[in-house]
Write a structure and sequence with these properties.
Radius of gyration: 26 Å
CATH architecture of the largest domain: Orthogonal Bundle
Distance between the termini: 52 Å
Shape: flat
Number of domains: 3
CATH superfamily of the largest domain: Winged helix-like DNA-binding domain superfamily/Winged helix DNA-binding domain
CATH topology of the largest domain: Arc Repressor Mutant, subunit A
Largest sheet: 5 strands, parallel
Order of helices and strands: HEHEHEHEHHEHEEEHEHHEEEHHHHHHH
Number of strands: 12
Helix content: 40-55%
Strand content: 5-15%
Number of helices: 17
Length: 388
């Protein structure tokens, strides 16, 4: 999909922004670097000024194409552009676009606010790849008519509003309440109070809740929730994309569909699982949700592994089973599958190593109907080979 979008790029698009949430950014970069007259520059340092960036660019141009004149550069890949000081991306792009006809490819870990707020630059920019269902938005278009709120809870937790990362939550409570309301989708006042302030009276909890909710709205710069029919819901004015919800829907699709449809759904679900749910939050509701999603992750790994094996792809299946062990340490059934595939692929020592790790695990869950027997069989076979 990403490669097709690159092939179909409008030639008038002067700025190509590699989507910071696309995990295979580097693979796509090769498409640009192979172009004639391409210059690659990785910004060196921190809080780099426009003047320093221009100096670095001239040095790279001289080394790569033997020229300092911008008119000789047909394409510039500007890597780690988020190392520039605030405002420098806008100023640097403005200079380059006035002095050169080159297409500029921006690569970084996050989007810079000046790119999103400068209408002229945004009109010249295209985001690659674009795939809203996978939370890869074209911020130049999707945010124009409705606020786009991206919530990534699979991992440490990140919130992005119209391409802007929300960093300052003014304490742990507003952030925790925000994620709770997003994860629930809709919640009664009683559910919220029992989760966050069970020791307070209803009046006290009401006061704290409204103060905290108001703080969340101030942080986001908009009304985050609405109240109707006894429930707090996410405002319909927001276009919400929530990774945990998308992940769950894909896992469920993988459970009910036939293999041909289940395989892409499970693959997509696993690609979205960047870590355990809100890994730094230890409130009971988050711990419980983390356990649920982790279980879904493990089940999806096993389901996709079984599909891969049925398609005659033992290496791919083995890789998934190994990941499943990390998700469910001490599960003898998974260890058995790993040992069996290692043995099938002619890697008996790896099979035995997996068994030894299981034996050392403090979370062993039984023999799985022959795990120790398989280990003994493999040892005997290895010993016979050595003797022969």
């Amino acid at each position: 999909m990403a490669e097709r979008q690159l092939d179909d790029l409008d030639p008038r698009a002067r700025i190509v922004v590699m989507h910071p949430h696309y995990v295979q950014q580097r693979a796509l970069l090769l498409r640009f670097l192979e172009a004639p007259g391409a210059v690659y520059m990785r910004v060196q340092g921190t809080q780099v000024s426009v003047h320093e960036a221009r100096r670095q660019l001239e040095m790279e141009m001289l080394a790569q194409i033997g020229q300092r004149d911008l008119s000789h550069m047909h394409l510039l890949v500007l890597d780690e552009c988020d190392r520039l000081v605030n405002g420098a991306v806008r100023d640097l792009l403005g200079q380059l676009m006035r002095q050169s006809e080159a297409r500029i490819v921006l690569v970084g870990r996050e989007l810079r606010a000046e790119l999103l707020t400068d209408a002229a630059l945004l009109r010249s920019a295209v985001f690659v790849p674009q795939h809203p269902a996978a939370m890869l938005w074209d911020y130049g278009q999707s945010g124009a008519q409705q606020n786009v709120l991206e919530v990534r809870a699979l991992g440490a937790g990140q919130v992005i509003l119209n391409g802007r990362v929300i960093r300052d939550w003014d304490g742990a409570l507003p952030r925790s309440l925000f994620f709770f309301l997003v994860d629930r989708g809709m919640a009664t006042r009683t559910e919220i109070f029992d989760t966050f302030w069970p020791q307070l009276t209803t009046r006290e909890a009401t006061n704290v809740f409204h103060v905290t909710k108001r703080k969340v709205n101030e942080i986001l710069g908009l009304d985050f929730t609405v109240y109707s029919s006894g429930y707090y819901r996410i405002s319909s004015e927001l276009q919400l994309a929530y990774d945990a919800l998308i992940f769950t829907q894909l896992c469920q699709l993988g459970e009910i569909e036939e293999a041909a449809e289940a395989e892409p759904a499970l693959s997509k679900a696993l690609s979205m699982y960047h870590g355990h749910f809100l890994s730094g939050l230890d409130m009971p509701w988050a711990v419980e949700r983390r356990s649920e999603l982790r279980a879904s992750y493990g089940e999806s790994l096993l389901a996709l592994a079984a599909i891969k094996e049925s398609h005659g792809e033992p290496e791919a299946a083995l890789s998934l089973y190994v990941r499943a062990i990390a998700a469910s340490p001490g599960n003898a059934e998974i260890v058995l599958q790993v040992m069996r595939l290692y043995d099938h692929l002619g890697m008996p020592t790896d099979a035995l190593a997996a068994y030894e790790r299981y034996q050392r695990s403090e979370r062993r869950s039984g023999d799985a109907g022959g795990l120790s027997t398989l280990a003994a069989t493999i040892r005997t076979r290895v010993g016979e080979r050595v003797n022969n």
